[in-house]
Amino acid sequence: MDIRLLDASDAKKYWDLRLEALEQNPEAFATSYEEAMSRENPVEGVAKNLSKEGSFTFGAFHNNDLIGVVTLMQEAPLKLRHKANIFAMYVSPKMRGLGVGNEILLEAINHAKSMKTIENLNLTVVTTNESAKKLYSKLGFKVFGTEIRALIINDIYYDEEYRVLYLKQ
């Protein structure tokens, strides 16, 4: 497995994996598959996002196939620059249970640590995703709140936990 920072040349592979993620685990993402499919020039949009300042998307590759991703995004406002968010974490089902999620999340955490201004890493996770919650807990993310009815999909509500990892005490 190879883990690296993605760039604009990875946009098509990222988009394909993103669509898989939205189909496989719709409860884990605010964007729906249908919304994603309705976007104009989505691969171009992804290429721009992968080049955006303050945003870092890490990908795990197996035999040149993108099998997992996670995005680290630093807050832009001056008063919030000590925080960054973990978004869009996903590992393809065929590669789960092999430590891929752990490795790409560690890469994002280590990158955040290398950015001297970041003190807090925040993320949200749907409360029914036990494997993700276990990983986040193992890596030190602590729950600081829960949003009841954070998402609704086909008339089913999903709650989300808000978690933080303090990089500096």
Automatic annotation (TrEMBL):
It holds the Pfam family Acetyltransf_1. CDD domains: NAT_SF. Keywords: Acyltransferase, Transferase. PROSITE patterns: GNAT. Signal peptide: none annotated. Residues 1-169 form the N-acetyltransferase domain. The keyword Phosphoprotein does not apply. The keyword Lyase does not apply. This is Protein N-acetyltransferase, RimJ/RimL family. It comes from Virgibacillus subterraneus.
